[in-house]
């Protein structure tokens, strides 16, 4: 029985092999391996794609978040509202600048930050809200932006899973103060290694992030502040520029796969899409009370599934010092217990999807 992988990254490379190989060879032959024209070209193309004035490449999605919070002058003791249900990097960025992550539960239907719960979490120390567009579905930005404006808070978007997603017909990329991207290979727009970027309409933040990622220097060997080394290298930028041209077609293919899952799956909870959202389906996540059993039985039938994410950040050992326990954020905990991500990707063949659907439906009927 052929194995069905969760995501076939090699297939994505092979689909564009000659273009990607040519782009890499061009950078290698150029003699220019840090910053330079290949990076600038990709930054401009990605900013234009996102409808943002500025794009700054950095070394990873986590660094995009950390440098954004630093550029906003977040510091020790400040509080940042974060979703209780997210990849832990969202929280780690807050902790990395010495601030405190203040979790807010997701909406139980969209799995994204519930705007109705945000104001109760705001204190005099709150400085920012990080909205995550989880699974490629935009968070409900308008009410979040209104709350932020009322309380004078910055809005940072974690768009690591949302390349090309639209909120009310406008692409994610510049709704909030700064938008953070990851180009980790498995993301919808992925490099051949680590990479990240920020997009923003705020020239001040773009300039500051670029300086912070370059040792705190705008002019060589003149350091305005204590920065770090976090740059998107030109080899990755050249690969990303090739892939960016195919992103919309890949998103369409993901939408097609998601549509079929939603139509044909039985006996599981499928994702709810608000009418203002045009998601890009980084993940297709179902829910079932016997998730662990279903996952194991699918694995026995050669179908690889994953859980995003099995332990809510507040239940992680890494965040023990915040003093939360099981029960502190019950929606996030329930999602961690019953969610299961099915295989999805731009190169997933139809017959693979047919087998996933038939197998899930058969197994669920007997669980
Ligand atoms: C992947 C991811 C990150 C981190 O990106 P890296 O490039 O791996 O550092 C942050 N937030 C979310 C929601 C992610 O999915």
Automatic annotation (TrEMBL):
Q: What is this protein called?
A: DegT/DnrJ/EryC1/StrS family aminotransferase
Q: Does the keyword Transferase apply?
A: yes
* A Pfam cross-reference name: DegT_DnrJ_EryC1
GO molecular function per UniProt: transaminase activity
Q: Which InterPro entries match?
A: DegT/StrS_aminotransferase (IPR000653), PyrdxlP-dep_Trfase (IPR015424), PyrdxlP-dep_Trfase_major (IPR015421), PyrdxlP-dep_Trfase_small (IPR015422)
What the record says about family reads: Belongs to the DegT/DnrJ/EryC1 family.
Question: What EC number is given for this enzyme?
Answer: 2.6.1.-
UniProt keyword Transferase, yes or no: yes
Keywords, comma-separated and alphabetical:
Aminotransferase, Plasmid, Pyridoxal phosphate, Transferase
**Transmembrane spans:** none
Source species of the chain:
Tritonibacter scottomollicae (Epibacterium scottomollicae)
